[in-house]
Design goal:
heterodimer, A: alpha/beta, TIM Barrel, six-stranded mixed beta sheet, two-stranded antiparallel ribbon, 8 helices, about 20% strand, globular, B: alpha/beta, Udp-n-acetylmuramoylalanyl-d-glutamate--2,6- Diaminopimelate Ligase, Chain: A, domain 1, 5 helices, about 15% strand
Chain lengths: ~250, ~110
């Protein structure tokens, strides 16, 4: 058993609002400086920088998790994480068919750069990534599960694109059991207000610029023998799955 | 004006009308439910494009006179059933929120 510090919500330079300096290598290098061990890449409605992110993570000794921050049809942000890169990429293909295609205006929204593992530009995404998809909040949980992933509402303590701000409350019949908080100081408050066990909150930075990444703080104690990054990721998902399936 | 009279005067479509005698006055437009809860006033026509089932709870909390779905937004049958059960009137129209509000202002 070893302690693994995590940040499971990060944007690369593919997200329009993600800084151009948030290349896969810079994200992993910064995480390594901050003492973070497990890092998830969750760009808006795309997984296309995840392959480069996995290459960069290996270089910096980071355990990568492939993910996406999905925007639902109600403009609610949901973090989607996958144990396997392939599943994340297939989910990315699915979301691609559920997007409203509006041309990006890079001058206004920012560039959307797809890079390779050495941070070289492969291409730029032509259509804006951050706008709402056709997938509703009721559909996300099962849709992600179909691709063997886990989904939970992002930054529920924020007004912008948080499920509580948009829907006024967490829907009583929701399938979600895990919830992300931006501010780890608020676990007790949200745990009480919404009857969610404290351990079901995931605290992550949602950093769009490198300087918003945080010092190591939130962690999972994971059984990691025999050690491999795949084993650590497997244990992480086992724990997330367990917290996600209890008390249903 | 009652909800029933309001429908007669405007021609908006009825999605469900469990409370036809409900009084209606004034209007509020918004889709961010946390805002609507705090800002819509009692008896208002609440014009929205939000279709999530939480609109029924918010309509009850804010005590609005009816929900008016704009832009041709449709609801799942479970949401309609819930509204009928909770006594929440729901109307709909194909026009935009702005044009719907103009129609509302002509009659109330």
């Amino acid at each position: 058993m070893n302690r693994y510090y995590y940040d499971l919500h990060l944007h690369s330079c593919l997200s329009p609002c993600g800084d151009d300096d948030n290349t896969p290598n810079n994200l992993c290098g910064m995480a390594s400086l901050l003492g973070i061990n497990i890092l998830a890449l969750t760009d808006h409605n795309t997984t296309k920088n995840c392959p480069a992110f996995f290459t960069a993570a290996k270089r910096y000794g980071i355990i990568p998790v492939a993910g996406m921050e999905l925007t639902t049809s109600e403009d609610i942000h949901v973090v989607c994480l996958f144990e396997e890169l392939d599943d994340a990429m297939r989910f990315g293909d699915y979301v691609e068919t559920k997007r409203y295609l509006v041309k990006n205006k890079p001058d206004f929204f920012g560039r959307q750069q797809i890079l390779d593992g050495d941070d070289n530009l492969l291409s730029e995404e032509e259509y804006l990534l951050s706008n709402a998809t056709m997938i509703s909040i009721e559909e996300v949980y099962s849709a992600v599960k179909d691709y063997r992933g886990i989904a939970y509402p992002a930054h529920i303590d924020r007004d912008a694109n948080g499920i509580i701000a948009i829907l006024g409350a967490i829907p009583p019949d929701t399938e979600f059991r895990l919830f992300e908080l931006h501010d780890g100081e608020r676990i007790e408050e949200y745990s009480k207000a919404y009857s969610i066990p404290a351990e079901n909150f995931i605290i992550s930075s949602d950093a769009h610029v490198l300087t918003d990444m945080r010092e190591k703080e939130n962690y999972f104690d994971l059984d990691d023998e025999p050690y491999s990054s795949a084993k650590v990721r497997k244990e992480l998902f086992r724990i997330l799955d367990r917290r996600n399936s209890e008390n249903r | 004006m009652t909800a029933e009279k309001f429908v007669e005067s405007t021609g908006f479509k009825v999605v469900c009308m469990p409370n036809p005698e409900r009084n209606i006055s004034g209007a509020y437009i918004g889709d961010l439910l946390s805002w609507v809860m705090g800002r819509a006033e009692s008896d208002n026509v609440w014009i929205t494009i939000m279709s999530n089932s939480n609109i029924v709870a918010v309509a009850t909390l804010a005590d609005v006179g009816c929900i008016l779905l704009a832009e041709g937004v449709t609801l799942d049958s479970e949401v309609v059933a819930l509204a009928a059960e909770k006594g929440v009137n729901i109307l709909s129209t194909d026009v935009s929120c702005y044009d719907a509000a103009i129609e509302v202002s002509k009659v109330i």
